[in-house]
Amino acid sequence: MSDPFVVVGADAAGLSAASKFRRTAPDREVVVFEKGRWISYAYCGMPYFIEGLVERMSDLLSLSPSEVDERGIDLRRGYEVVAVDPDVKRVTVETADGDRFEQPYGDLLVATGGRATTGPFDVRGLDGAFTLHDMDTAAAIDAYVAEPDEYDPERADVSAVDRDRVERNAAMAAPETAAIIGGGYVGVETAEALAERGLDVHLFHRSGHLLSDFGAAVGERVEAELTERGVTIHTNAPVDSIDGNDRIEAVAFGIGDDGTDAESLAVDMAVVGVGIRPNTELLDDTGVALGEGGAISTDEHGRTNLPDVYAAGDCATARHAVTGEEAWMPLGLTANRAGRAIGATIAGDPTPVGDIAATAVVKAFDMEAGRAGLLDEDEALEAGFDPVRETVTAGSRSGYYPGAAETDVTLVADRDTGRLLGGSIAGPDRAAVRIDTVATALEADMTVGEVERLDLAYAPPFSPVWDPILVAAKVLNGKIDG
Amino acid sequence: MSDPFVVVGADAAGLSAASKFRRTAPDREVVVFEKGRWISYAYCGMPYFIEGLVERMSDLLSLSPSEVDERGIDLRRGYEVVAVDPDVKRVTVETADGDRFEQPYGDLLVATGGRATTGPFDVRGLDGAFTLHDMDTAAAIDAYVAEPDEYDPERADVSAVDRDRVERNAAMAAPETAAIIGGGYVGVETAEALAERGLDVHLFHRSGHLLSDFGAAVGERVEAELTERGVTIHTNAPVDSIDGNDRIEAVAFGIGDDGTDAESLAVDMAVVGVGIRPNTELLDDTGVALGEGGAISTDEHGRTNLPDVYAAGDCATARHAVTGEEAWMPLGLTANRAGRAIGATIAGDPTPVGDIAATAVVKAFDMEAGRAGLLDEDEALEAGFDPVRETVTAGSRSGYYPGAAETDVTLVADRDTGRLLGGSIAGPDRAAVRIDTVATALEADMTVGEVERLDLAYAPPFSPVWDPILVAAKVLNGKIDG
Q: The FAD/NAD(P)-binding domain covers which part of the protein (chains A, B) (predicted)?
């Protein structure tokens, strides 16, 4: 009997791999070690739980431990893998009680995920200051935002939750003013959530427009929507410090490179969302190759450079469909897809993990936005392209049909070859899902001329004769030809 | 000075060609002959005008005659081209007054469009019975549906409208019960329109499910939605006759191949929407080659087999992206795109008209549906494929996010090569625009395995981690591999 398939981490990538492996090779053993108590939760749903759109925290769990068990997966919660020895194909495991043992593996998947970076801010020990990257924090934020006499403890209805922390936060007076630090998608979604909960929300962003990865055209539309909904946006406003004793009292911001003085804003809540970093420490002394973003380098089948060691999810790189190079984009589908493919491969059905098109979508109140591929000028130049771009504003429906709304589409192409490199979209009327057309065209290596001739859907309630993406392709193609 | 570029027909294809030609070759002459008085109207908007969602008929005009004039296009309304002599490159034109003259051309574009077929029904002379394919009929239907004292003559605010016909219809008592004959997209959209106007609507369809071109899965969802909204659906119910003296009184239906007796339904309105046919008679004696559907055969640049004679729009074929063969799909984007490409080509910038993916979308109340490529079993077999299909029902958003709705996706692939052949989608939550992903994948000749690995957008408000299209690809791919 061969050694089992060992998975480190019981979230999207790890459990997708274990499940697919068991279905494909039902007679072989798989063990999943998870150092915490939470498994398989919907990270992306946390802002909507805080907003109150999701009633119960348990709604955010994709799989319960007993469902994992029913799949024939040996799941061990509270078991931390603390060392990997690839020479003898063995991991060292430490239990919650402090016991240690050695576990041999046939194949190993490292799916350790990522963790929120906090920048210069240490929010530990400061009530009202949070870094949103796990369910316990989401539960604590939800409790903190509620008035003590209005908090419903049934909201955090998962046994794994840190109930002491929830209760402590629920007992505090509800905040009135919140600073959100970081204008990426977590920041934008949290701004919506807290504004909908009735707070006066200030969103601070280091650079000139929100959602830097989505490009300026999208950032401006999202900023306009947030402003209209009462959120105060501070761009070019790096936060310098989060101040207070025991409980947060203020944030200081605006010390720019030009030495301008910091301003201070009194707040009774802050949420830091400045980015995440990959958890790779487990492989520190193994000779593993790290790549883009410090994540674990993987090949088209999710293999690392260590024999029989795979990596997937937020701790691993993936191949970018446009550049053909390794990239690090910690997103949900990437993790699920890579985990599933690796599970199949290890079970004997070699399956590519697939390229990423760096597709992302985000909602801010009624504004929808999407992006895919290479949008940034410097990134495109670095990848060897000569980028040319065009932003158009087009209607989302036939002009005479009620609900037609201005939709901004940006497309970027390579001047020499005409190849589509990337695109973004923003608008209130079904804009986000349209980015899938761009993502598909990118994965097919289409030129912008080919995009211009796509036979996209037309009917007055859904699109004008020339879909906004076709309009952008037409104009950009004219610019390249001209 | 060379002879002008002559265009026959001033609708989407003709005016797109003339406009692009003038922009590309501003010094050259273009003449557009239009036998009627209407130009450049939004055919697809007519049901929404009848529904009352569009307030004024003039909202449906893309271009006014004076705007055409401002583009430097010599537009002659009331001028019918009655003959083409390709040997001497000359057309014969007859004016509304009955005068005739010869017009030489350098290049000729035939953009004569299509006309509604009426099946066995002659609705002329029968008040309350209509065939919806032109603006005068849309105006007449709108007037007929209104109570005489409630009709607003400002609705039909276009000088070209047949005002006598409008007034005669407006004066009649408003109908209570309408039969719609034909369950294609015109029939479905008109059913919605008349039901929203308060009529008791019966929709008759010859075959077993509505929207035959969209496949059974879509037809069933649309039928359920129409039924829920109070429309009575009669499938497998060919209408035998439309009966009445002066004004319509009843429709007889249900004489099947099995000799079942016809039933009669008392109605005071009927709309026939059983299909359209291409207007090709102008080229009858020229040796022009006709293709699929009896439409004028064209090549990748829109050329017919006659020298310097092009055809575009509802009268012409186009190349199908999946089969590579000629196909006839009279749709709005195809006409606009081909016209524009032909205008550029004739002006000296050779531009392909582009393949069609046979993409179509339709709305029935809150149900959205789309289709692309080859869905029909027999059509796929005929094109040399071994079709295998799968229909899945998946959520439109993360399950915990409000508004998630069941979305049905059907994908068809070739068993031998795995190539995607077609797809359809139906659901109430942003389903229609998602068909663009399928259309793009079809134009890129993707396999269903490649579709399964597409990096489509994920965020809880817009899509589950696995987009419904990815779910369908996953299941279909498993079926092919298995």
A: 5-318
B58, part of any domain: no
Query: Which residue in chain B is spatially nearest to A401 when comparing CA positions?
Result: B54
Contact B358, B320 (CB under 8 A): yes
Q: Which residues contact B135 (CB under 8 A, 6 or more apart)?
A: B38, B41, B46, B57, B60, B158, B160, B161
Residue A303: which of A324, A318, A285, A284 has the closest Cα? A318
Residues of chain B with Cβ-Cβ distance to A401 below 8 Å are 45, 48, 53-54
Residue B453: give the domain boundaries: 369-481
Q: For B57, what's the count of Cα atoms within 13 Å in the CB-facing half-sphere?
A: 27
| pLDDT exceeds cutoff 90 at A262 | no
Structural domain includes residue B397: yes
Domain boundary among B346, B378, B394: B346
In tens, the pLDDT along B406-442 reads 999 999 999 999 999 999 999 999 999 999 999 999 9
Nearest by CB: B443 against A334, A454, A459: A454
Question: How many separate domains does chain B show?
Answer: 3
Q: Is the CB of A401 less than 8 angstroms away from the CB of B333?
A: no
Is B315 one of the annotated active-site residues of the chain? no
Query: Which of A372, A453, A456 lies nearest to residue B436, judging by beta carbons?
Result: A456
Residue B473 lies in a domain: yes
pLDDT per position as a tens digit, A16-54: 999 999 999 999 999 999 999 999 888 899 999 999 999
- Per-residue pLDDT of A327-361, as tens digits, reads 999 999 999 999 999 999 999 999 999 999 999 99
From chain B, the residues in CB contact with A185 under 8 A are 459
Tell me the percentage of chain B whose pLDDT exceeds 70.
98
Same-domain status, B317 and B209? no
Per the CB < 8 A criterion, the answer to whether A450 and A456 are in contact is no
Do B456 and B378 fall within a single domain? Answer: yes
Mean pLDDT of chain A: 95
